[in-house]
Amino acid sequence: MELVPLLAVILLYAVVVNKATFENDGNLEALLNHVLWEPTTSSTPTTEEEKVVPFFDETAPYVNLTVQIGANVDLHCKVNHLNEKTVSWVRRAGEKMQLLSFGHHVYSTDQRYELLFKDPNDWQLRISYLNERDAGHYECQVSTHPPITFSVYLTIIVPQLEITDERGVQVKDKFYYVGSTIELKCYITKVPQPSQFIVWRHESTSLNYDTSRGGISVKTDILSNGAKSRLFVANAQTSDSGKYTCSLTDIASTSVTVHVLNGETPAAMQHGGSNRCGRLHSLWVMITFAWILFRLS
């Protein structure tokens, strides 16, 4: 039998068997999908539950999600009336797709991926210890014909840290005299979820809970877009010289070098003074030479 007459017979049979459904919705495309794609194991009419097409809880077909680097994130996909269909998570990069999970199984060598199912209908993809490369487009797919998809666009935020002195001026080197108070401020911005876990270190020593040195105080204020942390070291000694680091747990950090001087003038200041004296001397020579030329003219 030729292909075209065979398809005509199949379609005619489908119209007879599914007459009520076809008359109700008039959707020829749905009928063709049912005949050509949906497998049947019995000639008995389908149940009402089997006629319901799977759909997502979310009203929009996608969601934008912003998460801080180093954190864990759960991508949610809530599917109603799944029936015998299968849920998959894929990562899309242009035309390329990487399968991450299929049903209850993870298909990735990256151990940071985990598939979690939460009753009654939430198929969650968990990604641990996020890095910048994790940003991008993720899809939850249901194996209907054609598949239905729900997308998550993941953005990774990297916090920015800046250390200033007591005047609010950003510094990389700071000079103090013995007996003065070291005061440094650390500003943390681009933090979607502000945290109290801001650590100050002197070289390898944590200062937040240091009681052996004494005279050390750390005060942290949570701001709308980040945090501000202030470090005070009273009665500075030459042993307090070195690198001071402000870090947001193990995610990001910045440092400044502190020099505690015992009455001597910093080398940088000496060089700066010599340069200024040299410039003044050159200016005086030029003025004198110009005056001599004026008198000779």
TrEMBL record:
GO biological process: synapse organization
PANTHER family: DEFECTIVE PROBOSCIS EXTENSION RESPONSE 14, ISOFORM A-RELATED, DEFECTIVE PROBOSCIS EXTENSION RESPONSE DPR -RELATED
InterPro entries, per the entry: Ig-like_dom, Ig-like_dom_sf, Ig-like_fold, Ig_I-set, Ig_sub, Ig_sub2, Ig_V-set, Zig-8
Protein name: Limbic system-associated membrane protein
PROSITE patterns associated with the record: IG_LIKE
Pfam families named among the record's database cross-references: I-set (PF07679), V-set (PF07686)
UniProt entry keywords in alphabetical sequence: Signal
Signal peptide annotation: 1-20
GO CC annotations on file: neuron projection membrane
Domain Ig-like per the UniProt entry, residue ranges: 54-151, 159-257
Organism from which the protein derives: Sipha flava
